[in-house]
Design brief:
Shape of chain A: globular
Number of helices of chain B: 12
Low-confidence stretches of chain A: none
CATH topology of chain A: Rossmann fold
Number of strands of chain B: 12
Distance between the termini of chain A: 21 Å
Helix content of chain A: 25-40%
Strand content of chain B: 15-25%
CATH superfamily of chain A: P-loop containing nucleotide triphosphate hydrolases
Strand content of chain A: 25-35%
Order of helices and strands of chain A: EEEHEEHEHHHEHEHEE
Strand order of the largest sheet of chain B: 4-5-10-7-9-8
Shape of chain B: elongated
Number of strands of chain A: 10
Strand order of the largest sheet of chain A: 6-7-8-3-9-10
Radius of gyration of chain A: 17 Å
Oligomer: heterodimer
Mean pLDDT of chain B: 84
Largest sheet of chain A: 6 strands, mixed
Structural class of chain A: alpha/beta
Number of domains of chain A: 1
Number of helices of chain A: 7
CATH class of chain A: Alpha Beta
Low-confidence stretches of chain B: none
CATH architecture of chain A: 3-Layer(aba) Sandwich
Order of helices and strands of chain B: HEEEHEEHEHEHEEEHEHEHHHHH
Distance between the termini of chain B: 32 Å
Chain lengths: ~220, ~375
């Protein structure tokens, strides 16, 4: 599914070049549930963004589903993210004053063709995350856990191959955390590839495999 | 933005109003006219003021002009004085204008009730009067004035007709607030003068206006034995008058036009500021949209559309207020204004264009933003 070969990422915002990722080589199989762990500043988010085609590596090769991503142009990457990848973020990133349903349908706007069955699909994915009775609620009327579930539904709307979750439980209480992890577990059982970024070992333990990053390198690969 | 578009609408509406006004004026004045005023006429506060000396033009000058200048079709002398008019208990001050019947032909004055007076009545200095509609309303209210006796000064006059309403002329004189009586009557009975103040001359065709003006000037200078003294009369021909009017209108249009462009510019900068703020506040939204598959061009389009809508709303209100103001102005100020729908649409479109132009910078800034940077911004 995902193959990364000797990926390097350097930030050159300031005059000093700051290496963030160094010589990362990894491969993730279809249907795997992988956690990327590390302390803050270890480069785990950067790695996830690169794997999720939101950011480009400075050096290295990246293959997604057998396609070389490194050479793709900006628009092609956008289309790729739209079709094959779903993102879940720590801060949910929902549009406030917009209904749960409209938030979920947002990615469809950027698809080639707006599907006729958009509404049904939206309701279906919201039901999948247990929010069938919150469809018309505005995003800011929902609790944190519910908002994150809307975000997961949004990630699912285009039926993606991979779901990337960046600290999805970072802003949630323990009960909501359990719910979210439960949903991710279900999605994994349905056969989806899930990559979760976290600093929390108990969260990471839900995955099949844990990659631990330290100073921009993969320090440890564990199977819990 | 709103002010800009409103100005455009008002400006063009006024401009067109003024244009129509000029055409009306030409039409109402009579065609191919040359006006000779006794003494030097100067413009004071935009209005014609005649100098005190008015003892230069005589009826004989009119006869001479009609006889010697071949291109002249008709000539109508006039003299006027402001006097009190009374009917029953109503009483007002107005301009009493003495004219010959030729004046009705040349200046296209018609009656809506009754008749005009004829040459016989003029020659025999009869006390008959054709009154303006304002006079008819003020003195007679709803009653038909024709056949009634009014008093001009102390002398009784019979009202034989009421003029059709003509409105205010180019210099702000209300042409409905006056009474026309035979020239001989005013000269022999009311004012007791040998002199006339004004001659309206109709030339056979428009091309001859300037040559006829020159001929008349020479003839009058000769008759008045001016030698190398300056003219003791003023000649204006229609072409010049119209030109002057147009000039005034143009000045007004430029003035309002500059207000419009300044406020459109200010509106544009306002949009720029608002969209830049929106860009800063919505970085995360931009990041998210990029993450779920929006291309750079999608983001650019969204921002451009937003500033377009923003400007369009401003334009819409501008058009609304512009039309409102135009209607108000023409109702309250009695201005001659035509609402220009073309201008309204143009103003609206202009605001949209301004919105687009000033939206380009924020939109391309938003589009250039790296998704990763956008998502990480606080």
């Amino acid at each position: 599914m995902i193959k990364a070969n000797k990926i390097e990422k350097t930030y050159s915002k300031t005059a000093i070049l700051t290496p963030v990722l160094n010589d990362i080589t990894l491969s993730i199989q279809k249907g795997e549930y992988v956690a990327i762990m590390g302390t803050s500043g270890s480069g785990k988010s950067t790695l996830m963004y690169i794997l999720g085609c939101l950011d480009k590596p400075t050096k290295g090769e990246l293959e997604l589903d057998g396609v070389d991503v490194y050479g793709m142009d900006d628009d092609a990457l956008s289309a790729l993210r739209n079709k094959k990848i779903g993102f879940v973020f720590q801060q949910f990133f929902l549009l406030e004053r917009t209904t749960a349903l409209d938030n979920v349908l947002l990615p469809l706007i950027y698809a080639n063709k707006y599907p006729d069955d958009a509404l049904q699909r939206g309701r279906k994915v919201l039901a999948q995350v247990g929010l069938e009775d919150r469809v018309e609620y505005l995003a800011n009327e929902l609790s944190g856990g519910q908002q994150q579930r809307v975000a997961i539904a949004r990630a699912l709307i285009n039926d993606p191959d991979v779901i990337f979750a960046d600290e999805p439980t970072g802003n949630l209480d323990s009960q909501s955390t359990a719910e979210i992890l439960d949903i991710l577990g279900h999605l994994h059982q349905e056969g989806r590839t899930i990559i979760i970024v976290t600093h929390d070992r108990t969260v990471a333990n839900h995955a099949q495999r844990i990659l631990e990053l330290k100073d921009g390198r993969i320090a440890e690969i564990k199977n819990p | 933005m709103t002010i800009g578009v409103a100005s455009v609408v008002v400006m063009v509406s006024m401009g067109r109003g003024a244009q129509k006004h000029i055409l009306d004026m030409i039409h109402n004045m009579g065609t191919n006219l040359i006006v000779v005023n006794a003494g030097q006429v100067t413009l004071v506060g935009g209005r014609e003021r005649q100098a005190a000396i008015v003892t230069t033009l005589r009826p004989a000058d009119v006869t001479a002009i009609a006889e010697h200048v071949v291109s002249v079709a008709d000539a109508a002398p006039e003299t006027s004085r402001s006097m009190n008019v009374r009917w029953e208990s109503e009483n007002m001050k107005t301009d009493i204008v003495g004219v010959t019947p030729a004046a009705f032909r040349i200046r296209k004055i018609e009656t809506k009730v009754g008749r005009i007076f004829n040459s016989f009545e003029n020659d025999s200095a009869q006390r008959v009067a054709v009154i303006g509609s304002v006079i008819a309303e003020t003195l007679f209210h709803d009653e038909n004035p024709v056949g009634h006796q009014i008093r001009i000064g102390l002398a009784p006059f019979e009202v034989v007709g009421v003029m059709t309403t003509k409105g205010v002329d180019a210099t702000g004189v209300d042409r409905d607030d006056r009474i026309l009586i035979p020239l001989e009557t005013i000269m022999r009975r009311l004012v007791r003068t040998f002199f006339i103040q004004k001659i309206h001359i109709q030339v056979k065709n428009f091309d001859k206006l300037n040559s006829a003006e020159a001929e008349i000037r020479n003839l009058l200078r000769e008759r008045h034995r001016l030698g190398d003294k300056p003219d003791d009369f003023t000649i204006q021909n229609q072409a010049t008058i119209v030109e002057t009017e147009k000039e005034a209108t143009r000045t007004l249009t430029i003035l309002v036009g500059s207000i419009a462009s300044i406020s459109l510019l200010v509106g544009g900068i306002g949009i720029l500021a608002v969209m830049l703020t929106a860009f800063r506040e919505r970085r995360k939204e931009i990041g998210l949209r990029r993450a779920v598959g929006a291309r750079r061009s999608d983001i650019r389009t969204q921002f451009l559309l937003e500033s377009l809508i923003f400007a369009g709303l401003g334009g819409f209100f501008g058009a609304f207020f512009g039309i409102l103001f135009t209607i108000l102005a023409s109702a309250l100020g009695g201005w001659n204004i035509i609402i220009s729908w073309v201008a309204t649409f143009f103003g609206f479109a202009l605001s949209a264009v301004v919105g687009l132009i000033f939206g380009i910078y924020p939109a391309s800034k938003a589009a250039r933003l790296e998704p990763i940077e956008a998502l990480r911004s606080e």
